[in-house]
Amino acid sequence: MQSSPPEPGIAGASLPFRLWTQEERQASLEEALRHWQSGEDVWVYGYGSLIWRPDFDFMERRLATLRGHHRALCLWSRVNRGTPECPGLVFGLDRGGSCRGVVYRLAGSQVPTYFPALWEREMSTGAYLPRWINCTTDAGTVRALVFIMNRDNPAYIRALPDAELLAIVRRAAGRYGPCTDYVVQTAQALRAAGIHDARLDAIARMLEADEHTLPEGA
């Protein structure tokens, strides 16, 4: 007899949850920019919502491949796409494989303006590790700021069975809206950019087919 998926969100809701303070975010930002020369242009890598909502002006945008990490719904979201009581899932860059995304070139003069907001968005709980990593583009290699998953963070979650993952996504919503919208919009943005992600496509198509139906037994 096949067991039903566990009640979505319970595991995520039981984990410790704390938003970073402004001082913690500022310290992380300063560390990331420790070797940055004032006025120097920077590249930022996007693999999820940054592809369809970067929230900053940029001088250049290129398709890019990041090696050593892959896109995965591996992070509990208890603010943006969920709540502490009913967490959703958002994308992180987990270890292994490679990821096709985009890189943005920001004017150096805009870094002090845009980076604090970027840190508030991406580093609200310290779940990511900001790293400068080489990304391959058709016009050459660029060294870009990449937010990779911190596996030591309690919000990290390993791969889930499809039925459980879908149930979590369908039920969750946060300050930026339903988790379903987030996953589907990301998939649509990747398709529009000519980026193929078979795993995400399969999940998004199941959500798009009947977004209000929970998996049987969930």
Outline:
With 218 residues, the chain is an alpha+beta fold. It is built from 7 helices and 7 strands, in the order ααβαββαββαββαα.
What helical percentage do the residues reach? 25-40%
Biggest β-sheet: strands ordered side by side in the sheet: 2-3-1-5-4
| Rg | 17 Å
- The average pLDDT is 91
Form type: globular
Strand percentage, roughly? 25-35%
Write down how many β-strands occur, each being a DSSP E stretch of 2 or more residues: 7
Distance from first to last alpha carbon: 15 Å
Structural class: alpha+beta
Tell me the CATH architecture.
Roll
Number of alpha- plus pi-helical segments = 7
CATH fold descriptor? Hypothetical upf0131 protein ytfp
State the fourth-level CATH superfamily.
Gamma-glutamyl cyclotransferase-like
CATH class group: Alpha Beta
Instruction: List the helices and strands in order.
Output: HHEHEEHEEHEEHH
Largest sheet: 5 strands, mixed
How many domains, as an integer? 1
Protein name: glutathione-specific gamma-glutamylcyclotransferase
GO molecular function: glutathione specific gamma-glutamylcyclotransferase activity; transferase activity
GO biological process, one term: glutathione catabolic process
Keywords: Lyase, Transferase
